[in-house]
Each structure stands twice: as C-alpha cells, then as structure tokens.
Amino acid sequence: MTTSAPGALVVRSDACLAHVPGAEIWVGVRTPGTEVAERAARIETALRGAGHRVVEAVPHDDDVLLRVHDARLVEHLRTVYDRWVAAGFPDEPGQDRVVPYLIPSAGMLDGLPEREPTAVHAAAGRWCYDTMTLVGPGTWEAARGAVDVTQSAVDAVVGGEPLAYALTRPPGHHVTRAAYGGSCYLNNAAVAAQELRDAGHDRVAVVDVDAHHGNGTQAVFYDRADVFYGSLHVDPGAGWFPHYAGFSDEIGRSAGRGTNLNVPLPEGTGDDAWLIALDRIATAVEAHGSSALVVSLGVDAALADPESPLRVSHEGYETGGRRLGALRLPTVAVQEGGYHLDTLGDLVAVTLRGLATA
After folding, report:
1. Mean pLDDT of the chain
2. Which of 184, 278, 353, 354 lies in disulfide reach of 174, CB 3.0 to 4.6 Å?
3. Check: CATH 3.30.420.40 for 9-70+139-357?
4. Is the per-residue pLDDT at 5 higher than 50?
C-alpha cells in the first residue's frame, strides 16, 4: 500500500469500545474509571475533522502477540472474566469486575516457585500487579481488538505508508511480558515493534511520550539490542506511577545494555524542558541506527490533563511530533494515555500533524 494523501492513515475498530472499566480500586477506595470508551470516540471525531483517512482494522492471528507476551497471560485475560462469573463473584460479594486481592510479590514467595492458583480470585493477582486495572465482560474483546488495530497499522507502514496511527484502546505500555496493570492489558507498542522487526527492520525504536513511564515496553525489550526504548515522563521518584521503574539508571541489560533511555521530568515541566528531553531521545534513536519508529502516543503530559503534573501545550505536542517526524523513519503511532476529554482529540491531531509534516 502506498499513499499520496497527506496526514496519517488512522486505523480503528469498534472492538476497542467494548471495555468498560466500571471503576478503579485506588488505595482501597472504589473510584470512577478514567480509561473510558469516549476517549476513542473523541479522538476519532477530531481526526476525521482534521481530514485523516480512517480505515477499519483486520483480524490477525496470535503469532506476534505470543512472542511479546507469555501465553499464560494471554490465556488468563481471554478466560478470567468468564471464570469470575462462574465462581459467583458478581453475586457474592457483589464484585462485577475481576480485581486482585492477593498479589504474590517476590518478598512473599521468598524464592519459592510461582504457582498457578486454583481460585480465580487468587489467579487475578498472579497476572495483574495493581488493583486499578479491572476486567469486565468486554475487556478481552477490546484489548485483543487493539492488537488487531496495531498490527493493521504496521501492515500499512510495511506496505508503504510513511505514517499510520493505531487508535488503540485500552492502552498497553504498562504491560510486561507476563503481567498487566496501569489500565493496560496487552502491550500494543511492543507488538508493533516486534512486527516491524519481523518485517525486516533490523533495528526499531520505541519513543514513549506518555506522561508515565512505559515500564511494560521497557521490560519486554530490556535485554535486546535490536529494539531501542526511550521515554520522557514524570519522575517516578517524585511519587508517580509506575513508582518502581522509569529511573535514569535503567539503561538496559545484557545485550540490551545502552539501548534503554529514561528521562524523568520534574513536576510542572512545560514545553521547553519537555522538548529538550525529546531531542535527547531522538538523538539516541539516530545513534541506535533504527530504521523504523513506534511512537507510544500518550497525551496526558498536557496542561489540562488530570492524570499528571506535566504542562505541555498543544504547540509543544505539535513541535514534538515534528521533531520525531524529522527522523524520516516509517512510523507507527500507537495511542496510550490522555484523559481530558475536551482536549484529547485535538492533542492527538496536532501531534500527528507534526509527525506528518516534518
């Protein structure tokens, strides 16, 4: 597939609307879910209004997905809601979503092997590392649909599109090889990077501009030299999710040493410092010799977003898109965070405009 029209090719699917989080359990308190289906609708409306071409995703098999994630995690997500219902939890005690109550930490096990619990309420914590990422009746359909959206966008870029945007929901960059959390279930950006590798790109870069560190994407590729991961995000050392990862001394391990770059940012960071950090990551992408780019496009670093203390403007996002576009690499942009509904769509639109017009 080749393109003569301006802008990004946008890939979408109704499947991504099926997930209804229902709530988040934060410090033991049930609060409203923030990763809602309206996010995708707002983005799509803005992108159609901006003149981007919109196409439907097509189904893909699990081959790439199962090389990014442990097959047991995938099977857990595929089946856990039905198991939860069969066990009667929606009726007694009245919990209509899958939520962990016991998470087997390394300290708890103290060197013992991790086992697969028989009880579904215990198995929930075997695979989910927080209490905020609930599973409902449409969660698997949406998460798996987001993978199809991602792979369809990669297919378009492999076929000649210079830029394709995957309108993925739920997001994915917090999912490691064998654990999910952070409102994420399957790692779309990691799937995109792996498929680009499989398509013949010897080196691929993932640049994560979400306000929160993509601990999952980092973990998937931490030991590999062929995939560079760079992230600019609010400093986890200042008390922000994911708390335990995203520090500047995390540079990769073994063969991947030197191919991981985290740039933690202080609360209140605005355009100037944010763009300096992004330039630093772009320089590292060039040094890595990447021939394709995945952008984890979270827009929750924006001024109005309630989920982070960063203060990036619309102009900052467009400029950031332009600077990544200046790398002149075939690019797949994958939607991550962004929760202020009134500005979300326009933020994505201006970033894609920057990526497309560099």
Report:
1. 96
2. 184
3. no
4. no
